[in-house]
Every structure is written in C-alpha cells, then in structure tokens.
Amino acid sequence: MHIVIMGCGRVGSTLAHILEDKGHSVAIIDQSPEAFRRLRSGFRGRRITGFGFDRDVIAEAGIERASAFVAVSSGDNSNIISARVARETFGVDNVVARIYDPRRAEVYQRLGIPTVATVRWTADQILRRLLPEGAEPLWRDPTGAVVLAELDSGHLWVGAKVGALEEHANTRVAFLSRMGEALVPERDTVIQDGDIVHIMANADDLERVNAAVAARNGEDS
User: Fold this and answer.
1) How far apart are CA 67 and CA 212, in angstroms?
2) Among 165, 139, 168, which residue's Cα sits nearest to residue 152?
3) Would you call 212 helix, strand, or coil by DSSP?
4) 198, 138 Cβ separation under 8 angstroms
5) Residue 70, strand partner residues
6) Beta strand pairing call for 146-152 and 196-202
7) Strand intervals (E) in 55-102
8) Is Amino-acid biosynthesis one of the keywords UniProt gives this record (predicted)?
9) Radius of gyration, CA atoms only, the chain
10) How far apart are CA 30 and CA 32, in angstroms?
11) Angle at CA 87, nearest 5°, toward 84 and 93?
C-alpha cells in the first residue's frame, strides 16, 4: 500500500519506519524541514514540506493513489482538517487522526474519522500501573463509552469457570492472559492461578464489575 503521514514527530517517524519495513511505500509531510532529521538515513519514502491540509501538498505526497492517510501532527485542528480533506476530497477510506482533547472524539466519530486520543490513552496506561488492583481500561472506543479492561482474577476466582464469573459479575470476558499468551476462553474454561481476565464493558459499569468480582462468595464453581 501507499500511505501518507502528516507529521514527522516521534509518532509519525516511527510509523513511517515500521510501515516501510513492512514493505509499504510512504510519503511523510511536515511544515518544518528540520523534522525530517528524525527519519533514518536509509528511509526511501518521500519527504514533503508543507501543511497536510493543503490540497496541493497532499496531492504531491501521492494522496490520489494512497490506501491510507494518518494525521499525527501536534495540532488537533490541523489533524482533523487534513483527515477530512483526505477523506472527503480525495476519497481515502482508511483515515486516522490523533487528537489531544478526548472531548472532541465523539464529534469526529460522527464525521466518520477514527481518532486516537493520546491524552486519554496515556492517562489510562499510567492508572493501570498505579492502581493494579482494579479494572483500568486497556482500550476505549473514541466516544469513551465502551472499554476493554483488565481484571486481576485473584485467589477467589482460581478454579472457577469463566461462565461463572460472567454470570456473577454480569459482564463479558473477552480473553485471558495466561503465561504471557492470550487465550479466548469458552464458558467452561477454568481460571488458573496467575490468569489475567480481560473484559469488554460499558465504562460506567467498571466500578460495579470490580465490586462484584471482589464479592465472590465461593458458591460459583
């Protein structure tokens, strides 16, 4: 595929290298020529100086033959405008924009632009490390309503079946992490010592799920 990236910061340059290593062609845009110093010396993609929401600039980057467009500059407005130009003017279906203000995510979602809210994601990752005893989101959808969360099954649930946990906590188990590997369980899969349970739930429901998991009375098996 040909992929156009707007923003040659740490994220943009890292994406460019990974995509090129996977055999894709890449063009990267940045308003500052100095930003291209982040690219390795052997980078074979195109370097375009300019603004990613300028139609002539993204046309020069090959947007008309691009399979995907990624906007990861340091400005929310620039990212979303350029993403809309790529989607609405040039018909690129696979478009992703980074934003720093997660409150805008729902608005952009309605426009059909998938977003990555870096502030919310970073905060979630820190909370998971500060508060390992509870369910903290590994992922949340752009509106923040649905989350993938990690539960420490704890000694109370060792030996219990996944179906029993789901019924007891009225939640849905997405997968288990066991010995460093992911496992999609059946309802009769038995939770083992050290397993980490990952659930899909409404964000507003996490506190209730935590309380239900902690309140297991030993009758479920």
Assistant:
1) 45
2) 165
3) helix
4) yes
5) 5, 96
6) antiparallel
7) 68-71, 94-99
8) no
9) 22
10) 5
11) 140
